[in-house]
Amino acid sequence: AQTVTQSQPEMSVQEAETVTLSCTYDTSESDYYLFWYKQPPSRQMILVIRQEAYKQQNATENRFSVNFQKAAKSFSLKISDSQLGDAAMYFCAYRSYTGNQFYFGTGTSLTVIP
Amino acid sequence: DARVTQTPRHKVTEMGQEVTMRCQPILGHNTVFWYRQTMMQGLELLAYFRNRAPLDDSGMPKDRFSAEMPDATLATLKIQPSEPRDSAVYFCASGVGAGPYEQYFGPGTRLTVT
Hey, which residues does A21 pair with through a beta bridge? Predict the structure, then answer.
């Protein structure tokens, strides 16, 4: 089974600054999808951004962008101009191209300091 | 605005009682997932269905947990008998079976077993 590793249990960032959350994964597949989910205190899981492995261009969604390094099996999330509302648990997830199951990391708790 | 719904949102019960959690996936979604989230174990996949058929329930304690999809609009997760260690937040998620789809999560059921 694929494994997803988030090595930073907790991170903090000053409001308006930039922070990068790390994620690595282990797979023997060449085609797959990667996701970042946000879970605020409300517990509702929300998709932040997705990346298709066959696309070389890094995905961006407003202040959120990824650094996808396929050879290194690394998928980090960069949050620019951090806002108080960005405070949440962030989960990295993997899904194979042909499979249905998602594999989640253990999460990184992000604190935004005013 | 299509969303996954879960009932109840909160449940407090005594050890030994039966607990049933319900999930209504988004109309048109053919995959349904059940997750359990605790501080200690993080997000665990319990079971998932595709086209109402169970594909994997290896994450579920078989002796007390059961998951079913009586029809395309309802998924249930049942615990009988419940134990204090089952206290957790249980999430249902749904998605479509092809492409770089995300999982859409419900708001979760917070279960407390005393």
Answer: A77
